[in-house]
């Protein structure tokens, strides 16, 4: 079973160029309450290294590519995001790490909730204890 829930986005492009429009609860299985993007990541730098207790996310690489490592406490999987038309849904209680950002990579993240530090699990051992109850 794959940890990555691939999610195709509604592509509305034509001869003039590409266009993707995303609406929460319609194109994404949750209300979008926060949007952010990661860019200008230096070569060799990795991001993430946490899980969320409740938050869900849709991650889309709108430019360039990067690798996402997912871990549910039992299974680990690596996927490459490299298309603005397709992303992955990252469920709650999923450890995530982002690696190998290409030059000019822009990773867009749509989240189900506003930022809340208390929703983060930043210690991998704590995450494993929480997922293996």
TrEMBL record:
* Superkingdom as given in the UniProt entry: Bacteria
Q: Which residues form the Sugar 3,4-ketoisomerase QdtA cupin domain?
A: 5-131
Alphabetized InterPro entries for the sequence: QdtA_cupin_dom, RmlC-like_jellyroll, RmlC_Cupin_sf
Q: What is the name listed in the Swiss-Prot or TrEMBL entry for this protein? A: WxcM-like domain-containing protein
Q: Which species expresses this protein natively?
A: Alcanivorax sediminis
């Amino acid at each position: 079973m794959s940890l990555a829930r691939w999610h195709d986005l509604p592509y509305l492009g034509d001869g003039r160029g590409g266009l993707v429009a995303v609406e929460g609860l319609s194109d994404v299985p949750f209300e979008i309450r926060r949007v952010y993007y990661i860019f200008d990541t230096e070569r060799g730098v990795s991001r993430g290294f946490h899980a969320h207790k409740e938050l869900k996310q849709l991650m889309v690489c709108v430019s360039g590519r990067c690798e996402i490592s997912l871990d549910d406490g039992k299974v680990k999987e690596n996927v490459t995001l490299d298309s603005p038309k397709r992303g992955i849904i990252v469920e709650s209680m999923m450890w995530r790490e982002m690696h190998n950002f290409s030059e000019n990579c822009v990773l867009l993240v749509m989240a189900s909730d506003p930022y809340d530090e208390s929703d983060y699990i930043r210690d991998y051992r704590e995450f494993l204890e929480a997922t293996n109850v």
